[in-house]
């Protein structure tokens, strides 16, 4: 009698969050930074350490991978291609394909992971030390060794100190590139040993081009709204588009525009909606957009521009204090696994002016 076939266990494939960045052939709005890197490489005196600084999601890691691909493909030793963008490497190039697949022997990327306590993401010291050993090895393909530290402000103190030793005595034919949204959180000794590139938010035209190509189903009104709340950050725009960012922005607008009436009847329904997702993504987006709306309104008032009517409900100093308090509330709610609905209700209570 034949046996019934044994059921096979489904193999879970771990998602690679870095794949969209590694395989992205485009770099919009940062031509000067790319040209600076290419010029330095062609000079024959390439600095061994760089730092790309700027707001989250504007293309810092994209620039890092673009530089790594171009450098490791030996393009610095070849004549420039007439009319080609800085650091351009065709998608069909073998180096491009291997890096996109995460299979290049001379490239390593460090990204924040959940720390030992499981509360916040950090770049661990063990990973930093492994990257240092990697940099000290002879390039496997005869060119360069490249380490990209994406989110360097999240280096553990021991990890930062370990990298500092490599910055002081860099191995030959190696490049270390840091990206950070908070350069002031890095050690001064690290900042003094890297060549800094400051990346600015993308202009409206570049954001429009990008959103039209990546989000073709959005109508012009939705694209305009997405570009406005993303504030020149393509990564943030895509995250908001995929995570119901426009719907959450509508909730934020409803809350702020209704402050004068003090109507609390919809508070619980709104808090339920914000806290619905178990991963906390809607809550994080709600608080981030709420704080962004407050900071934008305060800046407009400080510049003599017409702020939204709700800003007049309290002094500017109180709005600044409230902005800080909302940030702490979000951090504590996430770090201590507090009830998100109650956190939203707390935030709404703080926003409502006293009568």
Fold and architecture overview:
Helices cover 48% and strands 8% of the residues. It folds into 2 domains: 180 residues, P-loop containing nucleotide triphosphate hydrolases (Rossmann fold, 3-Layer(aba) Sandwich), CATH 3.40.50.300; 109 residues. The protein has 15 helices and 7 strands. Helix 5 runs parallel beside helix 6, helix 9 crosses helix 10 and helix 12 packs across helix 15. With 355 residues, the chain is an alpha/beta fold. The strands form 2 sheets. A 5-stranded parallel beta sheet has the order 2-5-6-1-7, with helices on both faces.
Summarize the helices and strands and which ones pair or pack.
Elements: H1 19-22, H2 31-42, E1 49-53, H3 60-72, H4 94-100, E2 107-110, E3 113-114, E4 121-122, H5 125-136, E5 145-150, H6 157-168, E6 174-180, H7 188-191, E7 195-198, H8 204-214, H9 220-230, H10 234-242, H11 245-257, H12 267-274, H13 281-302, H14 316-335, H15 340-351
Parallel strand pairs: 1-6, 1-7, 2-5, 5-6
Antiparallel strand pairs: 3-4
Helix pairs in contact: 5-6, 9-10, 11-13, 12-15, 13-14, 14-15
Question: Which structural class is indicated by helix and strand composition?
Answer: alpha/beta
State the domain count: 2
Mean pLDDT reading: 88
Question: Going across the major beta sheet, what is the strand order?
Answer: 2-5-6-1-7
Percent of residues in beta strands? 5-15%
- H/E order of the elements? HHEHHEEEHEHEHEHHHHHHHH
What's the tally of helices?
15
Low-confidence sequence ranges: 7-14
Largest sheet: 5 strands, parallel
Radius of gyration: 23 Å
Q: How far apart are the first and last residues' alpha carbons, in Å?
A: 83 Å
CATH structural architecture of the largest domain: 3-Layer(aba) Sandwich
> What's the CATH superfamily of the largest domain, by name?
P-loop containing nucleotide triphosphate hydrolases
- CATH domain fold name of the largest domain: Rossmann fold
Helix content: 40-55%
Instruction: Give the overall shape.
Output: elongated
User: Oligomerization state of this entry?
Assistant: single chain
């Amino acid at each position: 009698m034949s046996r019934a076939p044994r059921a096979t266990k489904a193999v879970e494939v771990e998602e690679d969050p870095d794949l969209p960045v590694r395989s992205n052939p485009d770099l919009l709005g940062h031509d000067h930074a790319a040209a600076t890197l290419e010029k330095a490489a062609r000079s024959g005196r390439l600095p061994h350490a760089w730092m790309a600084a700027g707001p989250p999601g504007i293309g810092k890691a994209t620039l890092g991978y673009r530089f790594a691909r171009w450098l490791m493909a030996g393009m610095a030793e070849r004549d420039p291609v007439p009319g080609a963008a800085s650091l351009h490497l065709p998608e069909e190039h073998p180096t491009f394909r291997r890096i996109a697949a995460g299979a290049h022997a001379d490239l390593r990327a460090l990204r924040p992971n959940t720390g030992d306590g499981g509360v916040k993401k950090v770049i661990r010291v063990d990973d930093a030390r492994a990257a240092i050993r990697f940099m000290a090895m002879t390039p496997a393909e005869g060119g360069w060794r490249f380490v990209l530290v994406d989110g360097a402000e999240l280096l553990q103190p021991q990890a930062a100190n370990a990298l500092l030793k490599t910055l002081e005595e860099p191995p030959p034919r190696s490049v270390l590139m840091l990206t950070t949204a908070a350069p002031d959180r890095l050690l001064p000794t690290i900042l003094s040993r890297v060549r800094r590139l400051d990346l600015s938010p993308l202009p409206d035209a570049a954001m429009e081009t990008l959103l039209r190509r990546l989000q073709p189903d959005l109508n012009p009104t939705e694209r305009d709204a997405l570009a406005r709340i993303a504030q020149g950050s393509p990564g943030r725009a895509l995250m908001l588009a995929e995570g119901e960012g426009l719907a959450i922005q509508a909730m934020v607008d409803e809350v702020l525009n209704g402050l004068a009436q003090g109507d609390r009847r919809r508070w619980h329904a709104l808090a339920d909606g914000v806290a619905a997702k178990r991963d906390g993504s809607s809550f994080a987006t709600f608080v981030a957009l709420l704080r962004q709306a407050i900071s934008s309104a305060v800046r407009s008032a400080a510049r003599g521009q017409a702020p939204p009517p709700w800003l007049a409900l309290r002094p500017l100093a109180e709005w600044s204090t409230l902005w800080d308090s909302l940030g702490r509330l979000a951090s504590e709610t996430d770090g201590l696994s507090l009830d998100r609905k109650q956190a939203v209700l707390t935030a709404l209570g703080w926003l409502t002016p006293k009568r």
